[in-house]
Write a structure and sequence with these properties.
By secondary structure, this protein is mainly α. The protein has a domain at about 10-90. About 40% of the residues lie in helices and about 5% in strands. A hairpin with a 4-residue loop joins strand 1 and strand 2. The chain is extended and about 60 Å long. About 5% of the residues are buried.
Length: about 130
């Protein structure tokens, strides 16, 4: 058992998303729970797929399932539903009405162009000349 493994309660929530989306309908050689735990191990650990421990299903099987779930939008759907559940627990509207996006400018040691467009400020202006 690894720290990245899903708890039984987490697995109960995720399992329905996996059973209703299997396009082949064939019985798998590996348990879906083990495949999801392997995916979580790779994502949490930041390792390469081929470096998974041997007690997981083969890396190419795990990667295939990760890609198929991603391609079908299952990960996005799980995340959206978890956000709704979290917001309901906080007694908030389950559907956010807006989102905030922040931008940041970072100074570098290199000289920029004399004139440019600053998308954060929405204007064109002459840049300050480079001084030594």
């Amino acid at each position: 058992m690894y720290q990245s493994d899903l708890t039984d309660k987490q697995w109960e929530y995720i399992e329905p998303y996996l059973t209703r989306t299997d396009p082949r309908g064939a019985a798998s050689k590996y348990r879906k729970h083990d495949i999801i735990n392997a995916i979580m191990y790779v994502l949490e650990g930041g390792i390469k797929w081929r470096m998974m421990p041997s007690n997981f299903p083969p890396w190419y099987t795990v990667y295939y399932h990760f890609r198929m779930l991603n391609h079908r939008g299952i990960w996005d759907q799980i995340l959206k539903d978890l956000v709704k559940i979290s917001r309901q627990r906080e007694l908030r509207n389950p559907n956010p009405s807006y989102a905030l996006i922040d931008a940041q400018s970072v100074k570098t040691q290199y000289r920029g162009s004399e004139r440019g467009y600053d998308s954060g400020k929405k204007n064109k202006r002459a840049k300050a000349p480079y001084c030594n």
